[in-house]
Amino acid sequence: MAQDKAAMAHPALEATAGADQTGIPRLLAIMAALRDPKTGCPWDIEQDFATIAPYTIEEAHEVADAIARSAWDELPGELGDLLLQVVFHAQMADEAGMFDFADVVENISTKMIDRHPHIFGDESRDKSAEQQIKDWEAIKARERAAKSEQGVLDGVALGLPALTRALKLQNRAARVGFDWPGPADVLKKIVEESHELVEARDSSDHAHLTEEFGDLLFVMANLARHLDIDPEEALRMANAKFTGRFRSIEAALAATGRRPEDSDLAEMDALWDEAKAAERA
């Protein structure tokens, strides 16, 4: 108990004394104390929007990871880490006189009300999920127009993971008719791009090779869209499959007192096939 009282007496926490000691007010006060130019944390003080942005993306992925693993006991902590990122950005903006956390909350609250006229307005709630998606997109289009985003592809965030951004760009273009008729046409394009990649491989131009590889990935994302597959989810599943099978290789080698580096490709390939067969058994 004495230690708790000493901790509360720390100068950095005295800045929170006038704030509600629970919930969001407490977190905002803690963040302000961490950024205090005189008594705050040197690391936190040195950060800016650009340096914090990668952490924001990382924390969002960790939330998704906890959900994918059904790690519900970890999810509150991961969501807290993500919330901290929002508070961090809001605090830096407040210091710069740009906006504050209340503005962030007001913005998203207004947006949710505006985008759900069938709940908060006079539109009928009796509509399908498909119609709701169309209405949602129409509302977002009006929002983009209000922000002078005239181009079809305007507003697709540059900071998105490349695969996710590829899908969004393709969906936007498809809405105005710029799309292949079906998966068969996309598959033909994949064959074409594969041949171009092979040709680029045989050249000494690494930049061109990178370009052709990117083209192939972009078309693969388009195939996923036409097949109604989430490519991120498909790749996550492939990653999990690879991880499981490789760990089976490690376990088999460990049973003989060895590690992968003590083996060779032929043996590990055979163990891989055994792990693959075990999955199907």
From TrEMBL:
<dbReference type="InterPro" id="IPR011551">
    <property type="entry name" value="NTP_PyrPHydrolase_MazG"/>
</dbReference>
<dbReference type="Pfam" id="PF03819">
    <property type="entry name" value="MazG"/>
</dbReference>
<dbReference type="GO" id="GO:0046081">
    <property type="term" value="P:dUTP catabolic process"/>
</dbReference>
<dbReference type="GO" id="GO:0046052">
    <property type="term" value="P:UTP catabolic process"/>
</dbReference>
<feature type="domain" description="NTP pyrophosphohydrolase MazG-like">
    <location>
        <begin position="186"/>
        <end position="245"/>
    </location>
</feature>
<dbReference type="GO" id="GO:0006203">
    <property type="term" value="P:dGTP catabolic process"/>
</dbReference>
<dbReference type="InterPro" id="IPR004518">
    <property type="entry name" value="MazG-like_dom"/>
</dbReference>
<dbReference type="InterPro" id="IPR048015">
    <property type="entry name" value="NTP-PPase_MazG-like_N"/>
</dbReference>
<comment type="similarity">
    <text>Belongs to the nucleoside triphosphate pyrophosphohydrolase family.</text>
</comment>
<dbReference type="GO" id="GO:0047693">
    <property type="term" value="F:ATP diphosphatase activity"/>
</dbReference>
<dbReference type="GO" id="GO:0046061">
    <property type="term" value="P:dATP catabolic process"/>
</dbReference>
<protein>
    <recommendedName>
        <fullName>Nucleoside triphosphate pyrophosphohydrolase</fullName>
        <ecNumber>3.6.1.8</ecNumber>
    </recommendedName>
</protein>
<dbReference type="GO" id="GO:0006950">
    <property type="term" value="P:response to stress"/>
</dbReference>
<dbReference type="InterPro" id="IPR048011">
    <property type="entry name" value="NTP-PPase_MazG-like_C"/>
</dbReference>
<feature type="domain" description="NTP pyrophosphohydrolase MazG-like">
    <location>
        <begin position="47"/>
        <end position="120"/>
    </location>
</feature>
<dbReference type="GO" id="GO:0046076">
    <property type="term" value="P:dTTP catabolic process"/>
</dbReference>
<dbReference type="GO" id="GO:0046047">
    <property type="term" value="P:TTP catabolic process"/>
</dbReference>
